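[audit] Reproducing an earlier prediction to check determinism. Same input, same settings, fresh worker. If the tokens differ from the archived copy the diff job will pick it up downstream; this log only records the rerun itself.
[audit] input (295 residues):
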Amino acid sequence: MAQLVLSPRLMIGEGWDDFALIDSGHGRKLEAYGPYRFIRPEPQALWSPRQADWAADGEFIPGSDEDGGGRWHFDRPVPRDGWPLARGDVRFTASCTPFRHLGFFPDMAPVWDWMGTRLAGATEASTLNLFGYTGVGTLSLSQFGPVTHLDASKKSVAQARANAALSGMESRPIRWIVDDAVKFAAREVRRGRRYDGIILDPPKFGRGPEGEVWRLEEGLPGLIGECARLLDVQSRFLFLTVYAVRMSSLALAGLLDEALRHLPGTIEHGDLALVETGEGGRVLPTAIFARWSMN
């Protein structure tokens, strides 16, 4: 039976050559993505900015609906088709999407590194990336063995494949699948499949390729139950992240505790966060997570 650690953990991401959290405050954040700077909404930045001048190339102006909407305003030209960024050997395209983000989630960097420590030394580890989006996490995992990358969006999967080509990783053993995550996981259970690791980053609300409706609070317990059946005592990890919900990381940990009682190991939970660059940089929380791993 896995041990549930009640004390929360922090996974804090720092900037790298192609990304930095420069400043935050008054419900916004200023970030650098390669040569461009952007301002985006950040409700958890309750404090005041450290810097007076937030010169940026663009800003996302949110709509009146707290669940979405808004538009980009640009003060300087920004490539609408995106521009290349890199982290280590993984190269990918950043772009200003209609959903206020830039085509990847930089606060996931410590998660990619953590998964690498769980798989250290492996060359044939089989991993599953549900809600895989544009594939930065998939490409990070692919150095350890075959990866199944799944997303309900054909556009996202196409971008993930383009990122694989940009990284010179198109020949790696990656299955690219457009499907509903719940249906796919259930089919994998029926097929008797198993994985060494699973990462999932489900949205608050979404639709599958055939119009399937996903609501986090309703669908997550069942999906985690299916994922648990795809793991065994030889597996290394399951990592779950959740953004933009009024929920505690301890609730996520409780869900994993129930679903993974048949396995040994450790269940932990806490916050993902980014730290501002420079002296006195503050830690900005971005998401909650729960994770299971073998000791």
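[audit] rerun output stored. Observation attached for the diff report: The chain is about 20% helix and 35% strand.
[audit] end
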